[in-house]
Amino acid sequence: MEYTSTRDKSLSVSSAVAIKTGLAPDGGLFVPKDIPQITKEEIEALAQMSYTDRAVKILEGYLTDFTGAELSECTHNAYNKAKFETDEIAPLYKLTNDVYFLELWHGPTCAFKDMALQILPHLLKKSVVKTGETKEVVILVATSGDTGKAALEGFKDVDGTRIIVFYPENGVSSMQKRQMATQEGNNVDVAAVYGNFDDAQSGVKRIFGDKEYARVLEQNNFMLSSANSINWGRLVPQIVYYFSAYANLVKNDEIKVGDPVNFVVPTGNFGNILAAYYAKEMGLPIAKLICASNENNVLTDFINTGVYDKNRPFKTTSSPSMDILISSNLERFLYHITGCDDVRVAGWMKELAETGRYEVPEVTKAKIREVFYGGCCNDEETLLTIRAVHKENGYVIDTHTAVAKCVYDAYRAETGDETKTVIVSTASPFKFSDNVLNAIAGDGAADGLDDFALLETLSEKGELTIPASLADLRTKPIIFTTTCDKTEMYDVVSHMLNLS
Ligand SMILES: *Cc1c(COP(=O)(O)O)cnc(C)c1O
Q1: Closest Cα partner for 327 from 367, 274, 275, 377?
Q2: Number of the ligand 1 atom closest to the C-alpha atom of 431
Q3: Among the four 144, 161, 162, 471, which has the fewest Cβ within 10 Å?
Q4: How many domains are contained in the chain?
Q5: What pTM was computed for the model?
């Protein structure tokens, strides 16, 4: 299987090159030239397999330059009992007769980003070797919260890699700060940057673009790479859990192979729901893909009108991991839905960069609406949804998952569609305990409680066990206290790599 660029389809590279480089040289994203097909019989067979075997089966269609043994090693290193709280890895929770939650937050950082960031380091390490590269890979990450911790956990102690995470001093929650400052591992470094997320991100981008510095790194046998969500190595592992969810429905006699299922995905950068689209194109019987946004509802408008317009106020919401106005992975979808029209896609992306807006033609709009339904909800509706699900079903969901449930309720009321539906649950409720507690125990219940009192109170009121990885933070020593100015980020990198 060869990969090409969304902005220039004359390009052709292997999956190892796509994963190692992250972004195509023309600024486009790497996409597979064909989409592998899965038969009904193969789906039937998945039902009897473990999560790791399901993962090997899906990945081998895309990563054809990896051997079966290599993929097996990568999946076993990523998805195991030491990393995930359950053998099932991605269990399905049955809410009602026809609604299920796919819990993607049993990994080390309690959010769905673990599903990709636990395996990416292993895929990257192998990709580096395959492409004849001998340098040590240095991952630089700027994070607004969840990604940094998930990347640290994924890369920690992976041979041949180092990781440095920069977070904005005043841009992450105190729990997120603690998660990163207590990070263990002999190849990790963490620094707080004075300023906001943009300061941290622009600092990292400057280092990536600095040719002179790249030469210094090269002389010292290092190369930079990124764990960003546009890397194909982060997207492809996400396709697996859509097949896994379907396989579990078959295994539990909820459906027969071939029956249609809807998926609802709380969306920000469009990575998670794009993986569902690939699953559908591979032959998984997905009826509707429901794209749920918070008040940063650029995608809802895009699906409904064909106009992508990021020129609107950025809102800070109770589902912060979805506070995004540029959904980077949409570019891949546009490439596929236009029949691989790289010229058109490049044009739209140019318009987006220059004016913040582009519009797709009527035919494309119609195709988008065939696949997707788009909806959004605000913080008040999010809170009421958490409250209602807890009251009616005794099940506790986080704010991001609640956005998805709220949009699904609206979809069902509007369409009357009774197709069995899986709502993708992207974070443990403990990750956003203040808002969840206010929802299930009444407004003000979280007032005055510190991080650990919040965990304990939520555990009590929600009758839930606190995930060990969060409970353990209380006794973990703070390891990283470096704070730097935007201009000092080079020094942090050089210091970690012992460059003079
Ligand atoms: C990152 C994230 C999302 C959004 O996923 P995308 O792939 O960016 O659309 C949703 N929920 C949680 C908890 C996240 O961390």
Answers
A1: 274
A2: 13
A3: 471
A4: 1
A5: 0.96
Answer yes or no: is 87 within a domain.
no
Centre of ligand 1 to C-alpha 427, Å, is 9
Asked if residue 17 belongs to a domain, the reply is no
Position in ligand 1 atom list of the atom nearest CA 146: 15
| CA distance linking residue 33 with residue 61, whole number of Å | 12
Four-point Cα dihedral 56, 152, 182, 484, nearest 10: -170
Range name among 17-31, 57-71, 80-94, 168-182 with the lowest pLDDT average: 168-182
CATH number, domain containing residue 469: 3.40.50.1100
> 85-125: per-residue pLDDT in tens?
999 999 999 999 999 999 999 999 999 999 999 999 999 99
Residues 233-284: pLDDT tens digits?
999 999 999 999 999 999 999 999 999 999 999 999 999 999 999 999 999 9
Tokens read off for 470: 């969060």
Q: Is 40 a catalytic residue?
A: no
Domain that holds residue 431: 92-111+233-474
Residues 6+ apart with CB under 8 A from 106: 84, 85, 86, 88, 89, 90, 91
CA nearest ligand 1 atom 2, residue:
321
> 106, 173, 331, 400: which to mutate for ligand 1, most atoms within 8 A of CB?
400
CA distances from 29 to 16, 34, 173, 328 (A): 14, 15, 31, 9
Residue whose CA is at the smallest distance from ligand 1 atom 8: 269
Evaluate whether residue 323 is within a structural domain.
Answer: yes
